[in-house]
Amino acid sequence: MSEIAFKPETLEKVKQIIARYPEGRQKSALIPVLHLAQKEFGGWLDVPVMDYVAQILDITPIEVYEVATFYTMFNMQPVGKYVLEVCVTGPCMVRGSDTIVNHIKEKLGIKAGETTADGLFTLKPAECLGACGYAPMMQLGKFYKENLTIEKVDEILELCRQGQIALD
């Protein structure tokens, strides 16, 4: 891997985030800086990227690893362009999220946590995403897809394949 460094404009954002916190409290910037790192370095956080973040924040690498591996919003392995985070907790399960997950597995030929061979989709079961009244649901980028049915899932997958779903 080539030398890891934020683009100048991203580094400026990092500096702005760090400046929000008192001197000596730069570790408080860790989560937003990890989000920037994940976005800039391929959608996941490998060890050299986490080490780079530790260096920027002047904290130990283990402090970064602890946070990055604790929160499910950070990916510890490469993921597809579209990460299908399907809620699998109680309310969604009662409303059929297991059927949705199984359909996605079958339709894409992958298991939970896997990515399709074309690098387009990753299936990631998620704990409560806070939209129980609209179950079953999934998060796709920063958007919620709610009241899912097999037909809606098929439509979402097709729109993704056509590049018609924006993630930002």
From TrEMBL:
<keyword id="KW-0408">Iron</keyword>
<keyword id="KW-0001">2Fe-2S</keyword>
<keyword id="KW-0411">Iron-sulfur</keyword>
<dbReference type="InterPro" id="IPR002023">
    <property type="entry name" value="NuoE-like"/>
</dbReference>
<keyword id="KW-0479">Metal-binding</keyword>
<dbReference type="Pfam" id="PF01257">
    <property type="entry name" value="2Fe-2S_thioredx"/>
</dbReference>
<comment type="similarity">
    <text>Belongs to the complex I 24 kDa subunit family.</text>
</comment>
<dbReference type="InterPro" id="IPR036249">
    <property type="entry name" value="Thioredoxin-like_sf"/>
</dbReference>
<protein>
    <submittedName>
        <fullName>NADH dehydrogenase subunit E</fullName>
    </submittedName>
</protein>
<dbReference type="InterPro" id="IPR042128">
    <property type="entry name" value="NuoE_dom"/>
</dbReference>
<dbReference type="InterPro" id="IPR041921">
    <property type="entry name" value="NuoE_N"/>
</dbReference>
